[in-house]
Structures are given as C-alpha cells and as structure tokens.
Amino acid sequence: MAGSNRPAGRINRRSKGAGPLPYDFRRPTKLSREHIRTLQIAYETFARQFTTVLTTSLRAVSQVTLLSIEQFTYDEYIASLESPTVVAKVSMEPLPGTAIVEFSLDIAMTSIDHMLGGSGGPQPQRPLTDIETPLLQGLFGRVLGELRYALEGIASVRPELIGIEYNPQFVQAGGASDPVIVASFEMKVGASEGVATVCMPLGMIFPKLQGDRTDVQLSAAQRAAREAAHRNLVAGMESVPLDVSVRFQPVRMRPEELINLRLGDVVTLNHPSTQPLAVTTAGMTFAHAVPGSHGTRLACLIVAPAKEEDR
C-alpha cells in the first residue's frame, strides 16, 4: 500500500489499464465472468459507501475507487504488501476463514489526524499509539458495516475486527498456496493516496457465488454464445501440441554406478518383455504401447494394458 510518498508502481500494476496478464495453466482461474461481475457490483457499492464514511467521519475530501478484482495465492498477496502497513484481520461469520482489509499506514495516520481536528500533511511512519488505535478501530467498525451492506447480495455476513497488524508477514490468515480473491481500491484522503485491498479466501466466497449461478436465466442468444465459446475452446485445445513419451519402467541405480558409467556399458532394464510400454504426457500415463517400426521410422502400436496377473 503506497501513500503519497511511495512509488506509483503498485497502483499502475493493479489499474484497469494494466494490459493483458499471463495465464498460468497450473493454477486455473476458478471465477467465471458472472462471478467477477457479481463481485464488481458489490465492491463498487462498497467503494461508494467507503467514500461516504471517510468524508463524513474525517470531514476531508476523500475518494475510494475500485481498481481490480484478481485471484492470487495467499503467499503472493502477502508478498505484494509493503511493510509497515495497516492489516486488519476480519471474521466474516457465518462464512469460514478470515478476511483482510488493508491500507497504507500513511493514510491511517492522516485519517486519525483529521479525526483529531488536524489538517493532514506529512505523517510519521510508526505503529499507532494506545490513544490512536481505538480511533482507527472505530473507523474500521463503520467501514465493516458498509462491507456487510455491500455483500448482502452475495451472502449475509457479520464482519468483525479481530486485530490489527503492521507487518504483513506476521498475519496468519491462510496457507501459503491457498487461493484468495483480492479487490484493489485507489484510496485518497486529503493529499494522501494509495491502494487499499480487501482479501477473501476463495473457499469463503466461491460457494456463495457458485450457488447464485443456478438462479441466472440465460436467453437463447446467451446460451448459443456460451455453447459456441465452448465448441471453440474444445476445438482450440484439440490442436494444441503436446510432448508424448513412450517409456520403459524406471531403473534404480546408486550414485556411484551412475558416476562410473562409461561408453559401451550395458544397463539392464527391469521391464518385462511381455509388458507394454507406458505412453505418457506431463507425467500422466494415458495409454500403453509395444515398440515397432513404420517403414524406416521407429513407431509404437497402442495396445490394451497388461492384466495384473500377467505382470
């Protein structure tokens, strides 16, 4: 989260015009376009209500605008946060798990300054004092009330503040590889600005989004477009080239045997002559074959897998 004295790189990276992003097929996105649209409506409502809370509570010109909704792992999200920053752990009863509401320490100090009658301006970068902490907690209480209101269309929740941390690495709200949905907001309070985030575990919000899909009535044109997109996707995937291997059973050797291998040495294979070879791709066996030739080229013939008693 960046205050006015931080580089704008993070804001630019999370902005709507950031351009295309690489797709990781090892971690496919589970949110459909309908899911994203549902969350977008909820978070845009939250941004408007958040703006109202800041303006009325601080009596300063404030603005909160939704930038993006993205899926990360929890470890990637925590690594993207700067330290120190304000990280609020939030329970979302009756939903499982812990959510995070986070924004820069600079904005937190500016907000407290306005609540105490100040004019904002440069702020110290330090944890809050025992007097300042209840003021920020009171502000969080109002903000979480607006988050509850914004999410009513998705789920009925009771957000409650669990605690506040300043070092993201000390926040244990999920496993490193757990998928999370992160909404990023551009946040301005007086002359201070930065990026605020709301992070929810995918397992917390996804079942509620998935349940809503059964209530969506598609028109004939929408169904036809979805079916055409599915056909195009299947046709495109069928033409994707894959590396395929035909393998014998692996051989176990000691390191000294590998080191002492010389040109002309013979390595005995433990593959039974009656057992077909495994045909694999990406480490998965999908067929079995026996070696042979096709004209002058080596080839293999796909056969049924050997029965257990024949092995």
Automatic annotation (TrEMBL):
Transmembrane regions listed in the UniProt entry: none
Gene3D superfamilies: CheC-like, SpoA-like
SUPFAM superfamilies (UniProt xref): CheC-like, Surface presentation of antigens (SPOA)
Location in or out of the cell: Bacterial flagellum basal body; Cell membrane
Domain of life according to the entry: Bacteria
Residue span(s) of domain Flagellar motor switch protein FliN-like C-terminal: 238-303
GO CC field: bacterial-type flagellum basal body; plasma membrane
One Pfam match: FliMN_C
Record key words, sorted: Bacterial flagellum, Cell membrane, Cell projection, Chemotaxis, Cilium, Flagellar rotation, Flagellum, Membrane
GO MF entry, a single one: cytoskeletal motor activity
Region (Disordered): 1-24
Gene Ontology biological process terms from the UniProt entry: bacterial-type flagellum-dependent swarming motility; positive chemotaxis
Membrane topology designation: Peripheral membrane protein
Family to which the UniProt record says this protein belongs: Belongs to the FliM family.
Name of this protein: Flagellar motor switch protein FliM
Originating species: Planosporangium flavigriseum
Recorded name of the encoding gene: fliM
